[in-house]
Amino acid sequence: MAASRDAEIWKDVQTYYGQVLKKSGDLQTSACVTTARLVPRHIQEALRNVHEEVTLRYYGCGLVIPECLENCWILDLGSGSGRDCYALSQLVGETGHVTGIDMTESQVEVAKKYIEYHMEKYGFQTPNVTFLHGYIEKLEEIGIKDESYDIVISNCVINLVPDKQAVLQEVYRVLKHGGELYFSDVYASLELPEEIRTHKILWGECLGGALYWKDLAVLAQKIGFCPPRLVTANLITVQNKELERVIGDCRFVSATFRLFKLPKTGPAERCQVIYNGGITGHEKELIFDANFTFKEGEIIEVDKETAAILKNSRFAKDFLIRPIGETLPTCSGCSALESKGIITDPFMLAGQSDSMKSRCSPDVAGGCCGITYS
């Protein structure tokens, strides 16, 4: 029965994204056009280099381009028309590689159509991007090998899959130790009732399959990831009276999280860290998540989980890390971070940021990438 229900959902989603939606303006909610944080200039330029048709056919719900990407191998789950893949292929460079996977064949066809266009535009002799047709909870079936990627990204897609644990387990399998899943998705304020979970339009609009936000941490721990790191969050609005009636008191948020896969080491400890600067687009300041912003040369005290991530991920070379109490090099403008509560609730963060939306500059990511869709 569950398999039959899953197959029905897959078919409905493929129809919605392959035939019903023709452009982002056809969406009935703001799930796929929420405001994110400031977009670094080098990413804006990479996005501007993406072909117009690829951008027009893209329906993501956040900007899922993390930092420190040079030479990385990146896997994009639910790559759609390939917008993020093409931007990332430019950012990782010719020695890096980006693989996009999508279950909607018409979207994969749009993405493949422009490989030569983008490689010529970037000046790459050999294509560094590949697009595959398949299901993101069945990566092994399309040849994705164990521990083969540095980063996995996903932009408003995991909610479209009925078996979210299967997706996260596959991500954990294909990530290298020290790698991360950096993803935007939609979360619900409560366990969804049957009427919402079986509503075809709400599934297509990324709401019907939304995970109760507290369940993400439960799944992450069960699979072996570090606790989720909340990056951004924005409340979702619905522009359809009938859908509002079905949703009732349930609220939805679009949020970006980081999930790291770390090697099994001894117990971590609180540390003091200094960001060395130099990450492209984040030379002076690295906004790691909603709780930690690292400024170049500034001494910051971090909890044991953050320390373990910085020590064992691709960020290790960009930080000087020392145990609490050990003398660190002195520098001008250094300060220690006072102890504070860690924000994990995306609805709390969204509430804090909602009042700032009206003051956003044009460089803020609207429509997922700083582009206004009509």
Please give a structural write-up.
With 374 residues, this protein is α/β, with parallel strands linked by helices. Helix content is 31%, strand content 20%. The chain contains 13 helices and 13 strands. It has helices spanning 2-20, 41-48, 52-56, 83-92, 105-113, 115-122, 164-174, 194-197, 200-204, 213-223, 241-247, 304-312, 346-354; strands at 73-77, 97-102, 129-133, 149-155, 175-188, 211-212, 229-235, 252-260, 271-275, 285-287, 293-295, 299-302, 319-323. The strands form three sheets. Strands 1, 2, 3, 4, 5, 6, 7 and 8 form an eight-stranded mixed β-sheet that branches. Helix 2 crosses helix 4. The longest helix is centred in the N-terminal third of the chain and has 19 residues, at 2-20. It is globular and about 60 Å long. It starts with a helix and ends in a 20-residue tail after the last helix. Residues 360-374 have low confidence and may be disordered.
Short structural summary:
Belongs to the methyltransferase superfamily. Arsenite methyltransferase family. The chain is of the alpha/beta class and 374 residues long.
